[in-house]
């Protein structure tokens, strides 16, 4: 199966799906997360199997709005990039939806990279914000010396030098619906031959 998958050219399919997503959103400009949260506020959206920690759609919607407000209050604008460098974490979906509902792009950075490799991707993406966790504290701390221009740096699940505590900062912002929610997306970053 893997060799068959490697031979497939999905470029057209990915473009079609992105266009389809944009068309659906244009017809109904209310963020899909907001609709689902309004209809199913207490339904579980995210479940971490090992810890049993859960996040409902209502909580996910509210927290993603708070984080979206944090990003815009910090000066990020539509089209900016937010890098995400963490292990599987309950905050992942909050970050994704905050970025998407702000018209920004999410650049997911593989948690297995070295500090230098991860910083290369953050720098190359042009990220204006980086969200990480104490689960990858060694690499996240070491990458700070390699970051060129990423003024907003947040850490979940505890303190880390050089980063602002995510939970404390998010809690300072309103969860009232945003005036506008332009559609953002994932950023796919392909590494070339000049990998450090």
Order of helices and strands: HHHEEHEHEHEHEEHE
Main-sheet strand order equals 7-6-5-3-4-8
**Percent of residues in beta strands:** 15-25%
Return the structural class. alpha/beta
- How many strands in all? 8
Number of helices: 8
Main beta-sheet strand count, sense and barrel state: 6 strands, parallel
**Nearest-integer average pLDDT:** 84
Rounded to the nearest angstrom, the radius of gyration is 17 Å
Low-confidence stretches: 1-21
Basic shape: globular
Helical amount among residues, as a percent range?
40-55%
Model description:
With 196 residues, the protein is of the alpha/beta class. It contains eight helices and eight strands, in the order H-H-H-E-E-H-E-H-E-H-E-H-E-E-H-E. The chain has a six-stranded parallel β-sheet, with helices on both faces. A two-stranded antiparallel sheet has the order 1-2. It is globular, with a radius of gyration of 17 Å.
